[in-house]
Amino acid sequence: MYTWKDFKTNSDGLLPVVTQEYGTGEVLMVAYMNEEAFEKTVDTKTMTYFSRSRKKLWVKGETSGHFQHVLSLTADCDMDTLLAVVTQKGAACHTGHHSCFFNTIFDDGAPKKIVPDV
Predict the structure, then answer these.
(1) pLDDT at 87
(2) How many CA atoms lie within 13 A of 94 on its CB side?
(3) Which of 73, 95, 103, 114 has the maximal Cβ count within 10 Å?
């Protein structure tokens, strides 16, 4: 088990988190954690982020009911980014979209979702 001290945070003391949906492999969102958000996520198995705009903890789903239940947290090779695999209840995006990634810039026809071998 890794602790917060094992991670390399940015200049604000935050760690980016890529949140991916279990089963589809779809990237739902990217957000940030501070130490308190990391500890709460590990303890509760519910995604908790640090809101940079509000400068406070943000439990995903607390107001919308669209919770993210954590199945795994994995750090990248540099220990400066986390990958959270979650089950998503409802929409991940505050706009009501399932994923925050819906503004297509370029599309060559490649598949959008990859179903991992489980």
Answers:
(1) 98
(2) 6
(3) 73
Angle at 66 (CA atoms; ends 16, 64), nearest 5 degrees: 105
Give the separation between CA 82 and CA 114, rounded to whole angstroms.
19
List 75's β-bridge partners, or say none.
82
Neighbours of 69 (CB within 10 A): 15
pLDDT for 118:
56
pLDDT tens, position by position, 79-101: 999 999 999 999 999 999 999 99
Ranges of the chain with pLDDT below 70: 112-118
Ranges assigned E (strand) in 22-117: 27-33, 48-51, 56-59, 68-75, 82-88
